[in-house]
Amino acid sequence: MAADQRSKADTLALRQRLISSSCRLFFPEDPVKIVRAQGQYMYDEQGAEYIDCINNVAHVGHCHPLVVRAAHEQNQVLNTNSRYLHDNIVDYAQRLSETLPEPLCVFYFLNSGWGNSNSKKGT
Q: Which residue intervals of 19-118 are DSSP H helices?
């Protein structure tokens, strides 16, 4: 995490230089610089409050204490992706499969539908 907060202009300049253009910003003409979030709200660098209906947090909100605690406990053990064999992913898939009909019991665990990890920088 950044120790000092950059200005919006500095952050935008660095993003344009370092982040692929295929990773698009919302409101590119005047992007909102979000600096923190709590519950269902996000806050910009001026302190303006926005209700978050986009970031896949509507079900629990940002910084939910149970989610933060569970993530902290898991990160103390292992923080990796699904490309390594590990019990947690199959344990979770098994629990999830018990709630669904058989035809829906093949799982793809992803963090988002946005972005493309295969795109080249600057494209």
A: 65-77, 87-97
Q: What is the pLDDT of residues 2-56, one digit of tens each?
A: 557 899 999 999 999 999 888 888 888 999 999 998 888 899 999 999 988 877 6
Question: How many angstroms separate the CA atoms of 107 and 93, rounded?
Answer: 7
What token pair was written down for 98? 């018990």
According to CATH, the topology of domain 10-63 is Aspartate Aminotransferase, domain 1 (3.90.1150)
CA distance 46 to 35: 9
**Core vs surface per residue 90-117: b (16+ CB within 10 A) or e:** eeeeeeeeeeeeeeeeeeeeeeeeeeee
pLDDT band at 78 (very low <50, low <70, confident <90, very high): confident
pTM exceeding 0.85: no
Neighbouring CB atoms inside 10 A of 12's CB total: 16
